[in-house]
Amino acid sequence: MNIDSIAEMAGVSRAAVSRYFNNGYISEKKREAIRQVVEETGYRPSVQAQTLRTKRTKMIGVIVPKIASASIGRIVEGILSMINENGYQMLLAVTQNDPKKELEYLDAFSEKQVDGVILLGTVFQAEHKKILKNLSVPVVIVGQQVPGYNCVFHDDYHAFYDLTRLFFERGREKLGYIGAIRQDVAVGAERYRAFCDVVRDMGHEELAENYVTADFALQAGYEKAGELLEKCRDLDGLICATDTMAAGAVRRLREMGIRIPEQILIGGQGDAQIARVAIPSLITLHYSYEKSGEIAVQMLMEALAEKGTQQASKEMKLGYHIVEA
Amino acid sequence: MNIDSIAEMAGVSRAAVSRYFNNGYISEKKREAIRQVVEETGYRPSVQAQTLRTKRTKMIGVIVPKIASASIGRIVEGILSMINENGYQMLLAVTQNDPKKELEYLDAFSEKQVDGVILLGTVFQAEHKKILKNLSVPVVIVGQQVPGYNCVFHDDYHAFYDLTRLFFERGREKLGYIGAIRQDVAVGAERYRAFCDVVRDMGHEELAENYVTADFALQAGYEKAGELLEKCRDLDGLICATDTMAAGAVRRLREMGIRIPEQILIGGQGDAQIARVAIPSLITLHYSYEKSGEIAVQMLMEALAEKGTQQASKEMKLGYHIVEA
DNA sequence: GATTAAAGTGTAACCGATTTCACATGCGGA
DNA sequence: TCCGCATGTGAAATCGGTTACACTTTAATC
């Protein structure tokens, strides 16, 4: 079943059949004839042949550090729904936080396998930018602000600024912070910077020292919470860069016999299910993850539409709100 | 940069270049010449052209009900790692539990876009089987036992049998059950069947009535737990088909002032992070999700290798163990 | 009624690879 | 010396579409 047999059956040229599927310039009579034959045979044009000729794969490559994560899962869900709405499909790659793999997939995808790339990056080094520069397809970065590139991200600084302030407003004075590595600008650096700014503004500069970093695992939150508490035994508030870490911390503190939130108030980010269950009064920052995925796709679609024309990179900063679960 | 220019630069025919990339039959001299040119130019064969000719896309289509789910995320992670190990890529589709979409994607994928399909199904109706029958590529079903098809699934019956027995061994006598819809054979029917069998064996047939169904959302667990408790106020044990539901139930029961696990012991399935955090003594069933994803890919690869030969469908049933978080 | 623009059509080149086939070699064995 | 086999090689057909181009028909304008 190829275009030629359909053309023959319908008594038209193969160009006519192609036009039938693409854009007009075909008489009502022939259109109808072709429609009938197509219906009878169930014929559908070969995607690969189309791609070979047109150079468009109708696929978007999505690169994420991991997929079994509440926040990333929600972003991907948003991306996917919008991708499908636009008639595209999604090629997914997981890097397991390995920068080498990230570059590898970026490379493989750009090799004309996809029409565009969405990258949920964590750490951006010189090499990333070099590869990104040479990419032959448009790219949108999600979750990090990278000047000069299309990106959609949340307002991490103000979110954590507000959250930290809230802790003081609630009368907490001895805060601690469990963060992520500084190379991760959004999650690691920005959030902690906000924390530091607040404690300085409040005249408690020394609190910036109540700081440890952890990877994104529950287990890490568990361990680091213990370490932090050994360092300063009289903590009455603990802010974590993510809900997962916060959940780990909760577990550890409970095992230590600490009452939450009476003794120590805990805050996180993500509005994850885990936050709603762990302790009724865990405070968390809600980010609209699905939305950020959807916006990323829209940006990509715009870039795709403007392909060829000189296009400036776009940035989109999304808001947040505080949730007391 | 196409195969012809490379051939010219290396002073060989285009067939030789093709052979260089595929299988041998090329002299050491030419191989070296081509290698050099390839290295200089960074040339890589066009995937689409290869596909058009060979009919192999090196892509596996994966269809899941949702992606922002702990268990599914872990399965997908397993699938993906094994897919990449075999040099394939993953095309992902999410159905949002809409059977129509499921069929749609199944159809779209089989339309020669992918070499094989992995389906994380929930509900299998006649129409599913019809489409599956006509699929032109091999398929593996994950999470459900569907006779006559390749599938990998967990031993839901025995898992929930053991879990329910454990509740009795712990001295609980008034059990309740929050389940999923019966059309979902694995999660809905089998697990509840095991529960019923145990309570009957223990001479407590009436407990089978302490039963409500919910969808997979946390919220549903929350609401249904309330309903169930109104029906029978003296429950001392509650088993839920999934950890997410269990977490919802936990939240509700706490709001009602019930002490967990002293008053009511709660069990779930998934060994989700949520189970480890919610209440220290939530009991959960651990399934090796990553493993099931990996095995599914292996099955698919075998089917791909045997393509053409008559192949019997394979089944793989995986075990479980009980975790007291 | 002539002129011109717009709509409709088919031919053929093209996208970039793989693979069949026929033909060259070089070598060992009879 | 001749035959047969294993190994290498390139020409050309093929996969299944899209689209530039040239051409014809139809409709619109003056």
SSE blueprint and pairings:
2 copies of one chain form a homodimer.
Chain A: H1 3-10, H2 14-21, H3 28-41, H4 47-54, E1 59-64, H5 70-85, E2 89-94, H6 99-110, E3 116-119, H7 126-134, E4 139-142, E5 150-154, H8 156-169, E6 175-179, H9 185-201, E7 211-213, H10 218-231, E8 237-240, H11 243-255, E9 265-269, H12 273-278, E10 283-286, H13 289-305, E11 315-318, E12 321-324
Parallel strand pairs in A: 1-2, 1-3, 3-4, 4-5, 5-11, 6-7, 6-8, 8-9, 9-10
Antiparallel strand pairs in A: 10-12
Helix pairs in contact in A: 1-2, 1-3, 5-13, 8-9, 10-11
Chain A binds a DNA duplex (30 and 30 nucleotides) through helix 2 and helix 4.
How would you describe the overall organization of this protein?
The structure is a homodimer of 325-residue chains. With 325 residues, chain A is of the alpha/beta class. The first copy, chain A, has 13 helices and twelve strands. The first copy, chain A, has helices spanning 3-10, 14-21, 28-41, 47-54, 70-85, 99-110, 126-134, 156-169, 185-201, 218-231, 243-255, 273-278, 289-305, and strands spanning 59-64, 89-94, 116-119, 139-142, 150-154, 175-179, 211-213, 237-240, 265-269, 283-286, 315-318, 321-324. A six-stranded parallel beta sheet of chain A has the order 2-1-3-4-5-11, sandwiched between helices. In chain A, strands 7-6-8-9-10-12 form a six-stranded mixed beta sheet, sandwiched between helices. In chain A, α5 (70-85) links the parallel β1 (59-64) and β2 (89-94). In chain A, α5 packs parallel to α13, α8 (156-169) runs parallel beside α9 and α10 (218-231) crosses α11. The longest helix of chain A has 17 residues, at 185-201. The model of chain A has no long low-confidence stretch (mean pLDDT 91). The interface between A and B is large, with 43 and 44 residues. β2 (89-94) of chain A pairs antiparallel with β2 of chain B. Chain A binds a DNA duplex (30 and 30 nucleotides) through α2 and α4.
